[in-house]
Fold each of these.
Amino acid sequence: MTLAPPSDQLAAGAPEHRRSARRSSRAPGRTPIGYVFVSLYALLAIAFGILPALYAVLLAFTRADGGFAGIDNFITVVTDFRFWPAVLHVTIYLVIWLIGLVIFVVLLALVVHALRVRWASTGLRFIYYLPGALAGASSVLLWLFVLDPTASPVSGLLRLMGMNSFVQVIQPGNLPAIFAIIAFWTGAGGWIVIMYGALNNISTDVIEAARIDGANAVQIALRIQLPMLRKWIAYMGVMSLAAGTQLFVEPQLLSQASNAVVPNDYSLNQLAYQYAFQQNDFNGAAAISLLLLIVALLLSWVFVTRGGLFEKE
């Protein structure tokens, strides 16, 4: 047998019950301001992302007179003698950059996270982030001085490697590594800060339990931290791959600074630029852009599936 609560207790509990009901009615949900922010992003994405991509698809399958071309534009660009060297250049650059990015960003993030002195880790994160504050073109202009043995602060190292002039430094065989170094210097700092934040989300109880079991710093990194960073590494790979396939500013500026020692069709984006604005063939340029998009999407799919980016915990 249960006893009903006294009426005075019901009366006293009623206001609290109503307050909790009001709070639950204001529970997290979609607020108008959220729609405002999303709508601004959606408009920009449509105007500068989706619509240009759709227009590129239209151009890629049509002729200059507007007629349907089928795959003729793709055959034209693929059989161009400049196409496959540009593919090779971008591929070598991507391999060097992505491998270096994953290894050094994760390693440096682990080092910063391991520092227990607050001012030291904060200072390092600030230093890492500084190069990313420069625009891409500004970074390349800065590197023009770094790569010139007559003005470089590392001229001794360049001369030790047998490079005594700017032309010797920027020989085509050296360019993939040079572009990878420039890209790493520009973009790695932001990723280190992101990886550092991801490391902070790992429960300290898990780390302490591993230490109690006798795991050292290397074992903790390999068996606990790296597996838990897998999604973030996959995300970094997808975003960096999307940026890397768009290689344009670095070789374009080096080409102008070196009086065409670096060819103006070194990368696929440069070749598309040549098609559009030198040959007046916008359909061919659109075909190259569409091929780049397809390859980037396929490679991104590999990163997403292998990295478990959208897997639920």
Note: The mean pLDDT is 82.
Amino acid sequence: MSMRTGRATRAGQYLALTGYLVFLAFPFLWLISTAFKPARELGSLHPTWIPRHPTLDNFRQAFDEQPLLQAAGNSLLAAVSAGVICVLIATPMAYVMARHRGKLSAAATGWVVVSQAFPFVLLIIPLFLILKNLHLINSLAGLIMVYVVWSLPFALWMLVGYVRAVPAELEEAASVDGAGRLRTLVSVTAPLLTPGIVATALFAFITAWNEFFFALVLLKTPEKQTLPVVLTHFIGAEGAADLGPLAAAAFLATLPSLLLFALIQRRITGGMLAGAVKS
């Protein structure tokens, strides 16, 4: 009886997981289908999943109408820079907060969590004034600074958890063997933190790549606008969307995040015990 109950529970779990995956995949699959449909099928009263006459005209039109490559380059520069800078700042801070616990560390951790509750609208005016005084309005450098500040609290919170998961006994054992603090951090702690660092960098990258509001407010020159902002140009003044080119451009905009995750997902899930074995 218990075996049947266990099988039924497992089957229900798989069914729920399948339904959740379908729910997540539906918008992306519909986006791909729309991107390859000709204008006649887009206006059909009986839409289909698979285009009857697939075409690349939407992609050609999207590149002809908007500077997608330039916008993608701006987004890539901002996202990569924000991810790298965020990790470089958050990693040593997370180590100190995790290894030296106290009232100050607890207060900092609490502030990190509370800061995530602040809405964009509440922050945009003071950020705009600060960047204006620094002469960083309408510049990618100013936007990168904003992305780093916005991603840093959550990145720090993530890395603190990863550092605390690394047994302090490993560092103590390395110290007993004669390794100094720097050698211990580089040879023992850093390899164990690699999955966390990669995950944090990926979080900061995706956050910056998809961000729209800050880029819309802070960037005025069309040559400096990021990809999410340029995608809105496919929507007319009266709210009518150029659906085919918009779907094609949006599909291309999702590819970097998907490819990046596919390339590094093994680095995130694998190597969790790398460096834990003495050589």
Note: The two ends are 50 Å apart (CA to CA).
Amino acid sequence: MDGDLGDFLRSRRARIRPEEVGLPSYGRRRVPGLRREEVAQLAGVSVDYYIRLEQGRGPGGPSRTKSGGVSDTVLDAVARVLCLDETERAYLHAVARPRRPSGRPAAPRVRPGVQLLLDSMERTPAFVLDVRMDVLAWNALADAVFDYDRIAPDARNIPRHVFLDPASRTFYPDWPAVAVQCVAHLRVRAGHHQDDRRLALVGELSLKSDDFRRLWADHPVRECAFGVKRIQHPVAGLLTFPYETMALPADPDQNLLVYTPEPASETTERLALLGSWTSASTVPEPTERA
């Protein structure tokens, strides 16, 4: 266990008010949220046990599994007290009992069948992401929107674009929300792959971006499985995309993202024009149109 576990637990107990879990609140507190002893009491473990858990010192005693990790019973009790949702609960289990590295991770490769699937999506931008949100493959419309073919392979990474490219704040009109979603998604991936060398990206972004460092310290944990994203394209103007994220069962470290504009919407019309311009290699100059 590393500092992620303690930081996560502290951030989550800080957001719970005593009265929310049936405890009396006695005036002002030095710190917001629940105290450690209150979490321990409500979870049914000793105060020393919980302190050791939060400090990452590996609590001992009967609540450890035969393999030496913290038991499901204890983690589920703590998750209940801290009102964790399903994604946060899974993250807690992952960071409390990290998997041992199975060797150096192989370079991610997208199967030919997946690329054929991407290419068959002629009306929707679609692409594949790996654990650290590198863009591994894409179709023609995704290239028309994001210009992936012209980006160096090392730079085809969503967090790098969001936090290190100044143009991203114009490209994403809702940049603050996109930044939080990006960090929350990366947090989930990092929790399940703590020993993956590919996630050295987190340290790099923490050094280079104050915004990333602040958001990472807030410990947002959320699966961004679906939603709506707005993009201010330099040529096509404002594009509004509902999106869906799907796991690839044969490639568990890869996700397929599909942007699906509403039928007969302005975005659908602009996307069709953008696709035709790109295929004809006659993209017009950027427009001020919104």
Note: The chain is about 40% helix and 15% strand.
